[in-house]
C-alpha cells in the first residue's frame, strides 16, 4: 500500500553552516523514493557556508510544508541561532507532526536550545558534546544516536551515516505498515535486515 503523499524533508540552512552537514544527508535523502527535500532558510537569499560555498534555499521557513523529517546541520553559525525566536519556534512547531528529528554535528545544540532534546540521548561533535547536558539532553559519545524519533550524528561526515540509518528506519516503517506487523520479534528482524547489523545472513530469511 503506497503512501498518499511524498515524505516531506526539510533541511535548515543558515549562514556559516558546515556545508557537508547539509549536503551529505541531502544527497542521501533526496534519493529516497516518494520524497521531496526542501532547503529552508529565513529568506530566499543565497546562504554562504563556512567554506564560502553558497547554497540557494528552495523555500523560506514560512513557506515550508508540514515536514515528516527535519534535518538541522551544524557549523559556526549555529551559535547565532541559539536565541533566534523565529528559528526555534519553527523547529518546535514542525516537530509536533514530524516522524523524525535529525541533527548533524552542533545542530543538536540548536535542537536542545529549542527544548527538543530534553531527556533524549544525543550526540554532537566531540569538542562540544559537554554542552548538551546543560540544555537537558543526555550526551552520548557515539557516531550516530537514535533515541525514539530523535536521530543525531556527531561530526560532519557522520551526517551521511546518519542519513543512511534514517533511510533504513523509513524503509522498516513502510514494511511494518504494509504487512501490518505488530510483533516485536518481526520488528527487530526487519531492523536487523534493514540496517545490515548482523555479520551473517539472518537464519529466518532462508
Describe, in short, the structure shown.
With 206 residues, the protein is an alpha/beta fold. It is built from 5 helices and 11 strands; from the N terminus they run E-H-E-E-E-E-E-H-E-H-E-E-E-E-H-H.
Q: How would you explain this protein's 3D organization?
A:
With 206 residues, this protein is an alpha/beta fold. It has one domain (7-167): Class I glutamine amidotransferase (GATase) domain (Rossmann fold). The chain contains 5 helices and 11 strands, in the order βαβββββαβαββββαα. The chain has helices spanning 19-29, 85-95, 107-113, 158-179, 184-195; strands at residues 7-12, 35-41, 47-48, 54-55, 59-60, 69-72, 100-104, 121-122, 138-139, 144-147, 150-153. The strands form 3 sheets. A 7-stranded mixed beta sheet has the order 5-2-1-6-7-11-10, sandwiched between helices. A two-stranded antiparallel ribbon has the order 3-4. Helix 1 (19-29) runs parallel beside helix 4 (158-179). The radius of gyration is 17 Å and the shape is globular. It starts with 6 loop residues before the first strand and ends in an 11-residue tail after the last helix. Mean pLDDT is 86; it is low at 182-206.
What's the layout of helices and strands?
Elements (H helix, E strand, L loop, with lengths): L6 E6 L6 H11 L5 E7 L5 E2 L5 E2 L3 E2 L8 E4 L12 H11 L4 E5 L2 H7 L7 E2 L15 E2 L4 E4 L2 E4 L4 H22 L4 H12 L11
Parallel strand pairs: 1-2, 1-6, 2-5, 6-7, 7-11, 8-9
Antiparallel strand pairs: 3-4, 10-11
Helix pairs in contact: 1-4, 4-5
